[in-house]
Design a protein that fits this description.
Elements lengths: L1 E4 L2 E4 L10 E7 L4 E8 L5 H7 L8 H5 L7 H10 L11 H18 L7 E6 L2 E6 L7 E8 L4 E8 L8 H10 E4 L3 H7 L1
Antiparallel strand pairs: 1-2, 1-9, 3-4, 4-8, 5-6, 6-7, 7-8
């Protein structure tokens, strides 16, 4: 997967300073703002990644997640973000309650304090996703962006300068300028 952002190409090839099974690229600005692009090697979704990572020893969660394992990464993130304590019925089917509590725990770990300021969904031509955090209330906002074919990239927008924050219009500009492109033939061969 290759992405173009204001003329800067970000590729999922690990040569971009990848961390383990993740490709990443970080931009630091003099203002104190940082933008990090992360392309997970496992494009199946967070729940799929948790179950398939043998080092986590959580393969049994596949039974708890059920049909979520066969759904898109976007749907998995949606299920996580839409699970709330109110959505868990203590006196309903036990399997649904266990699944809800498990998703709620993963949600707390995966998204942490960013959820305190809000989680929002967006849909734009050729892409959709989620924004974790409100830039007016937090120094960090995470964007989970999915293209029309299901590939996704995570964009972490934060600041090290307490007086500087991203504006919502800056986040929107990042989202609207991000486009999936086809890798040139000579680079596509390297990605296999």
């Amino acid at each position: 997967m290759s992405l173009r952002f204001h003329g800067i190409r970000v590729s999922s090839k690990r040569g971009l300073g990848g961390l383990g099974k993740v490709a990443s690229c970080n931009f630091k600005f003099d203002s104190g703002q940082n933008v990090t692009f992360i392309v997970p090697a496992n494009q199946g979704g967070l729940l799929t990644e948790i179950v398939q990572d043998d080092s986590l020893k959580m393969r049994d969660l596949q039974l708890v997640f059920g049909d979520l394992m066969t759904r898109s990464a976007y749907d998995q993130y949606g299920a996580l973000l839409n699970t709330t304590p109110r959505s868990i019925r203590a006196f309903g089917p036990r399997a649904e309650a266990v699944r809800g509590v498990t998703l709620l725990n993963i949600k707390a770990i995966a998204f942490g304090p960013g959820l305190e300021t809000g989680a929002f969904s967006f849909e734009l031509p050729g892409k959709r996703g989620f924004q974790i955090g409100d830039p007016q209330k937090s120094r960090r906002v995470d964007l989970k962006v999915f293209d029309s074919t299901g590939h996704h990239v995570e964009i972490l927008c934060g600041t090290t300068n307490g007086s500087v924050r991203f504006s919502q219009s800056e986040l929107n500009r990042i989202l609207t300028s991000l486009h999936t492109i086809t890798a040139p033939t000579h680079l596509a061969a390297l990605q296999n």
